User: What shape does this take?
Amino acid sequence: MDREQLDNGCEKGVLGLVLAILVWSVLALGSTRPQDFLVVQWLTVALLAVWTVRFIINPKHRLLWPPVCWPVLVFVTYAIIRYRTAELEYPARQELIRILIYSVIFFAVINNLHKQEPSQIVGLTLIFLAMVLSLYAVIQFLTDSDDVWSLTGHFDKGDGNRKRGSATFINPNHLAGYLEMVLPLALAFTLTGRFSHLMKVILGYASIAIFAGITVTFSRGGWLATGVSLVALFYWMARQRDYWKRGLIVVLVFAAIFTVTLTKARISVNRHERFDTSKQIEDMRFSLWEPAQEMWKDHFWFGVGPNHFDARFRQYRPDLFALQNRPERVHNDYLNTLVDWGLVGALLVAGCWATFYWQVFRGWRFVQRSQGDLGAKRSTRSSFVLGGGLGLLAILVHSYVDYNMHIPANAILAVTIMALVSSYYRFTSERYWHTVRWPLRCVVYPILGAGLIYLGSETWRRTKESSALTRVQTISRAIERESFVSTAQRLAELGRQQILALEATIVAEPSNFEIADDLGEALRIQSFAGLPGYESLAEKAMVWFGRSMELNRYDSRSRVGYGMCLDWLGRREEAGRYFEEAALRLDPHHYAVLARAGWHSFQIQDYAQAKKWFEKSLNSYCNMDLNSNAWIYLKLTNEKLAETAVPVSHSLHRAAK
Assistant: This one.
């Protein structure tokens, strides 16, 4: 087999791996879970390896480097530097790995799939995949199904997402984000692409299905983003004498679908109530914006750190019932970027998008075919650039009210479309091609080698951690399932198994402060059972709580656990400062932290202070089931206060006599 055949094989291998990444990422819950994203990591490592082999076997392999590659490279460099200076190493490393994965996909696609046939295959795959997802979402909507079936199992949507189409995503908003990027591409292929009549009919039906899928998500952000992209598309079509009639027909069909869907939604009172609940939950996202702005103002230039928002949010948490859970993201990709990366990082990201759209506008006349006397000449190149550019415009609009770019499936789709559209800029000039000869190989080879080694080692490390975490989750579910039906001996055995699994996880990933915290909590629970040897278990729990505090100095949970162990061992004077630090400085508005502070005051018999903590906890979150400790201990505290008040009243009565 000669070099040319090997090179062609590598090119097909890259195409196959990219398609596998695109399909897997969306069919596995959007790859939001670490174990699902791990498959994407391994596929990307294989993609980078195949591309490296292609460089080696083909001395004439050319590097396509349009202008957008420069700001992307600068941002990746900034991300590496910012990771090295981040306060919390573990979440920053996970974010860096994602950025490196996306950048590898971007550069691999732009340099290996720039030919018309591979890019067309990718485009058609995306359209038909989106059609399948849309049909599934419509079925969920029509059958009132709250189940999500994906490649990785069966899941429930959760209260905020019921009676809405979500396909293989948990959150319907994220499905809308995915479909809104593909719909303009499907319409552009249908109306302006060079395909057979049969293929155009199929693409037309796919476009209708995708629009229906967006409609049944009932994502207001998705509707707005889709509307903006469609208005831009129809405005362009109205200026073309052969397309305005077709555009009008599409508008009428879409309007009919939208009207029928809304009518169906109003038929059922129960469904309407579910939508109102979803709307209330969605509106809670805006409560995150104010603390996020405060966080950014305190770290204006470089942000709090990559993927640090969730860990740092506790200090900025407002005293609101709606924000007692972990927010994870800001629900605004622009504000999230400012918080994590600062103004410098946000400007670099903006530079990537600005350069991309500058390429689209400047290169448009090079990819479109001029209109002749007999009508417009169709071009798949121009349809891809038009549809891809408008699809990315849609996700930019939607990102203002959601965090779609932090959903791996959506981010990978956006990166792939951006790379494919950018590759068409090669028609503007030959100067963007660079043959990789030895002077240039001295730069390319070390970068590819370093990326392959780093991503490969980190992916293997993540694999071991994921395997151990799966074991932990299995045991935790068993404990939750058997907590009310099993014997104390059985629960103690499950607890010991959980501790062993957590220890294996922390060995695989020593920097994961959440696992260190979970291990300390598991040991504390075992110690609080009061069985022989409870003192050593408490001491061991304190070691892991201390480890968690070292890895994350903003974590309130580890300080509360450490203080509870000190109380349990009779060292109550030492415990006070840990509760005060957690409840007054690190997380002053979280109901569980406040309840634990009240528990400590109860242990030292400071019942007046305990009453204040418990009442404040219940004001933050009054749910009797989830905040039962505050309810129970507030009742006990009031009884203690009543008992101490009786002797005082008797002594005063005797003194009066």
User: Anything to note?
Assistant: The two ends are 113 Å apart (CA to CA). The chain is about 75% helix and 0% strand. The longest strand covers residues 147-150.
